[in-house]
Design goal:
Elements lengths: L3 E5 L1 H8 L5 H10 E6 L2 H14 L5 H17 L1 E3 L3 H14 L3 H13 L8 E3 L3 H9 L3 E3 L2
Parallel strand pairs: 1-2, 1-4, 2-3, 4-5
Helix pairs in contact: 1-2, 1-3, 1-4, 3-4, 5-6
Length: 144
Amino acid sequence: MKTNQSFWDTSGIAPLCCFQATSGRLRQLRRKYEVVAWWASSIEGQSALKRLLQENEISQTAYAEAVKRLEFQSETWREIQPTEKVRTIARNLIESENLRTLDALQLAAALVWCFEKPEGRIFVCCDDKLSEAARKIGFTVLPE
């Protein structure tokens, strides 16, 4: 039974769709939390899966199955749309946290989701730099 919503960065979503070292822990979190994601997360997720294929970390069959899982997952989550507020916050995060564009957009979407009050809110992320920025601004970052 899902008890809460949490914001999921693509680095947390992709391992739900294929086998990686963090997949088991992330699947546990997925059973506990409803997913809120950025509008472009399904596109970024497909790109991440394609990169795994190109780097021979997954097979063509595993890639095709993972893309299907990603499509299914994306139908179940709540999406934060690309708004002027997201863009403004992302620009500020690039300056204050020295983030790349997609990371800034992810974190900005998470801030829009929680009305810019991240304390006590869960941010699921497997990217070290983005996790650090999310913690710095007040999110609880999982997995630990």
